[in-house]
Design a protein that fits this description.
The structure is a homodimer. By secondary structure, chain A is an alpha/beta fold. Chain A has two domains: 178 residues, NAD(P)-binding Rossmann-like Domain (Rossmann fold, 3-Layer(aba) Sandwich); 184 residues, Rossmann fold, CATH 3.40.50. Helices cover 34% and strands 17% of the residues of chain A. Chain A contains 13 helices and 17 strands. In chain A, the strands form three sheets. Chain A has an eight-stranded mixed β-sheet with strand order 3-2-1-4-5-6-16-17, sandwiched between helices. The longest helix of chain A is centred in the C-terminal third of the chain and has 21 residues. Chain A is globular, with a radius of gyration of 22 Å. The relative contact order of chain A is 0.14.
Chain lengths: 372, 372
């Protein structure tokens, strides 16, 4: 098996699909070679020589890399010319974002590439080791809490000093998936008083297990498939906003992490709700790139509205490139092991396979991109 | 007593000497009025109306404010025209930095102002409530740990995930005064493995009480007056650098907090020591404005040297303006209470008094600024 590691080129992307330590483990397998595009590890301070020491060969050109790969490991969908350079039957493996990346998926189909989108991995226990959404959400959640602490003009922890007592900051986390739970844990570590909310009432115990208060809005639960929240009605959203508003208003920091895969993120914090926050408060929106949980967030920007800072996340896992890549590389390595095992009917492989043999083999993607 | 609160004008300064809640308490005392310069609380989102609600009168001009004040409360030394506007016999109270701010001190002397420099308050138990160096160092130390976490491309905490184990970051804190101890505590909260070093071996127990390892270099202790370190010889520094180098090289984050009041900060991290750190590591230098504990730090800038980020602190307490001002305001309020009590021989008042009745009354300042 010839594995290729692409140097990522999208603006803001600082991860690599396989860091040197993961390459080293892969090279130890029989009949396996790893080729890495020069500079692929630059944002994690991994040099070409580090990759060579791990057993990889280095090439300059992405097309040359692709043309010699049985499996091309990426973070983001590569450029169309790179997909076109892959041999027919080769596998492309990464966070391919298939519903939004129609051109890349069509190119994979047309060139006979077998594309695996890690977002589509079924959420079963055995798939945890290949669950890149979760590993990257862990990074994003940690980062979100740090950003909140950094933007707030107050302390997070309680202090009792000779100059008086400082009360702890109040942090509200909306969405209690992996990112939200990690934001809760990190804000708690820093000493804040933390509350968490999720439309899935099943999340309450997880929020409480981290020492946070679960915000109970007394709305009907919104449990969707695979442990994600389902899409919400306009009526539900209006009642939800009204019920959330007082909790948002009394918070020093609101961290929003609510995402529904393949869809626009739900609006949770309206412009009116931001206007009701105290000046100096902070909103950290991890969903800014998928439409935003906060009406005022813009990806990659920090706006100030009436004294309230609104931070819109962009490429948040890339802000911790060393460890985001380490976790992602472990996901990719585990996926490669499944490919090597060769059971193409394996639930994880079958569930995440988008294209194969010139066709869309994933029904939902086919319906979205090439209906009829 | 007529108390004036100046709007601070130095670049980077975001604190105010007395926030509204402190003004409210002062106004409750008999025969006390508080006048505040318009906009003084802008960086902590305290409006002129907030000050009015606390009982203060608002004036626009700094000179007008000064001319009607018995006590002028400031963070930094005011402009010379403001000092000149103070009535003879009025008190000027703040972090006046007397050894570096010769012009302001000479102006205070020449206009018959009684200047109190909070840096000169004797370090006795009773003085804790007026110890602004300590209250502001608490803010700076917390902030330094956050900055380290923010600049590091890795996690601080240990994680054991389905995608493998992330080891905790290694943080080394040099200087274990109030700022250093708070940096240690905050880095520990975030889950890092922390070590602390101080030339005063008396600091070892405090470092260990926070769950950090004390770095023992087996050099002679350097205990100076008032709990501060004393100035060091070149020979001591060379041996110290050699002994510290391996600890610095193995750290992910080095936070330096070593300051000797009124003197240039000791050099602790040389250019060679930075060069020996792993790319992606971080140096946070809280002493950058007083000469720097790290040879490469520049105040207010983040430089990258061979992949190592070096952050030079500038106006660090101002990065948490709400709580820095709250603590500082409590210090000022406690000092005003001593002035009101009227015992001019009080050890705290006498120790911090720089000028009075047209003369320098603080011996060390007089020797430095107006010898002979």
């Amino acid at each position: 098996m010839r594995i290729g590691v692409l140097s990522e080129t999208r603006p803001g992307e600082r991860r690599v699909a396989l860091p040197p330590e993961a390459v080293s483990a892969l090279c130890a397998a029989p009949d396996t070679t790893v080729t890495v595009q020069s500079g692929a590890g630059r944002h994690l301070y991994a040099t070409d020589d580090d990759y060579r020491a791990a057993g990889a060969e280095i090439v300059d050109s992405a097309q040359q890399l692709a043309s010699g790969s049985d499996v091309l490991a990426v973070v983001n969908p590569p450029e169309l010319t790179v997909i076109a350079a892959l041999p027919a039957g080769a596998s492309l493996l990464g966070l391919l974002n298939p519903f939004q990346e129609a051109q890349a998926m069509l190119a994979a189909r047309d060139h006979g590439v077998t594309a695996y989108a890690l977002e589509l991995v079924p959420r079963i226990s055995r798939a945890q080791s290949v669950d890149a959404l979760s590993s990257q959400a862990l990074v994003a959640g940690y980062r979100a809490a740090l950003v909140g602490a950094q933007l707030l003009p107050r302390f997070f922890p309680l202090f009792m000093t000779a100059a008086g007592t400082i009360p702890p900051a109040r942090v509200l986390v909306l969405g209690a998936g992996v990112a939200g739970l990690q934001a809760i844990a990190t804000a708690r570590r820093l000493g804040a008083v933390v509350s968490g909310y999720d439309v899935r009432s099943a999340a309450a115990d997880e929020v409480r297990s981290l020492g946070a208060t679960f915000v109970e809005l007394h709305l009907e639960t919104q449990e969707g498939a695979g442990g994600y929240a389902k899409s919400q009605s306009a009526d539900f959203a209006a009642r939800q906003h009204a019920a959330l508003a007082p909790y948002v208003a009394e918070s020093d920091v609101v961290i929003t992490t609510a995402a529904i895969p393949g869809r626009t993120a739900p609006l949770l914090v309206t412009e009116e709700m931001v206007a009701a926050m105290r000046p100096g408060s902070v909103v950290v929106d991890l969903a800014a790139q998928s439409g935003g949980n906060c009406a005022l967030s813009k990806p990659g920007e920090t706006g100030v509205f009436n004294g309230v800072s609104v931070w819109g996340g962009a490429d948040v896992p890339s802000q911790l490139p060393v460890h985001a890549s380490k976790l992602y590389g472990a996901n990719i390595s585990a996926f490669v092991a499944l490919l090597r095992a060769g059971d193409m009917q394996d639930e994880i492989l079958a569930g995440s396979r988008v294209t194969e043999g010139g066709r869309f083999v994933h029904e939902a993607v086919r319906n979205a991109l090439a209906p009829g």
